[in-house]
Amino acid sequence: METGHFRQSMSLLLTRRFGTFWFASLLANIGTWAQQMAQPWLMLSLGASPFLLGLDSFASGAPVLLLTLVGGALADQADRRRTIALFQSIQMLCPVLLVVLIVTGQVSPWMVIVMSLIVGITDALSMPSFQSIVPSIVPPAQIPTGIALNSTQFNLSRILGPAIAGVLMASVGMAGAFAVSALSYVPFILVALWVLPPLPAAKGRRVALNHRQLWASVGEVAREPQLRGGLLTVLTTALLCAPLITFCPILVKDVFQGRAGDFSLALGAFGVGGLLGASGLLAVDPLSDRRTLSARFALAYAGVVVLAAVNPWSIGLVGLLLCAGVTMTVSNASANAVLQSCAPAHLRGQAASMFMLAMRGGMSLGSLLTGVTVHAWGVREALVLNGLVALLLHLLVGRQWVRAPLLTPNRGDQSKACKP
Questions:
Q1: Is a pLDDT exceeding 90 seen at residue 372?
Q2: pTM of the full structure
């Protein structure tokens, strides 16, 4: 790591298009994390069981399993500006409706779950277009830097969003956090319409979602060992380690008898860790191989999950969530850099969709399955099991991934190394 690389990375923020996109994304993610802070607490206040809490998380992520590949095809074939504007506008209506339901006293757990399902559907269809924005507006050599900076704003929002939500929940109630979420969509939609280049007219007139072509592109991504290894690493982390965050409210409320402020502090610590991890990546040479970073930090994240499950102190949970934020961010951002740098240009949207499928789909399934084990055995026991299985899988996947040859997206030229 070098300070020169860090200064060079930060200079990308001064560019007009990327800097504006970065700031708009920060505002949008602050709203998202404000809602992520308020929603599980709202569910618990409505008497929802741990299973319903896991079901709510599953509802927001399940559509990724079915629709994200379609979203990847839209990112590669359709006008990304229209895709983002349409589906993010629909998504914005969900927190607006929740505000109305909370204020009128009509909200119930099933209503929250339905809203999560709508958010999941719109995310699955629009997020691959969002993920492909950075490669569209920065030079190829700066793609890893752009992804690291994007991860920085995302994790900064993890700090600011829960903090703002905690203040609003304590002062004006939960409706305030959902109102912030609704408002945060507006600048992001406007900026996305501006920064993304328009689709050529000849391409925009025809969007054919050919199933054979869709699966052929998926197979092309999956056949490359460096891409497959990154996807499996992200999937394992999402499936087995991410439930630590999903069931953090139960750890705080039931195990440590904490309140909303304690939950906000815990999520804030996770965000601080993510910010530290993303900032550290800015000092890494953009041409370095990110696979080793991703594999090692994924393994460390699994260890953190085990420690968080057996930890007896509430302040210890805050420290471990800080470590969880560092390890998860470095691992996932590094894997994403490999995918976006090494995938062929015509498959970047599909590679982004498969990254989202592994991350969001894995989180969805992991939340549902862990919700069952938490209900049956308890939150500590369920998380210990998750962490131990993740340790084993990361050892197996990481070893093969790091040893695989790292080649350029051009399959016919195996003499050049891909530099994520």
A1: no
A2: 0.69
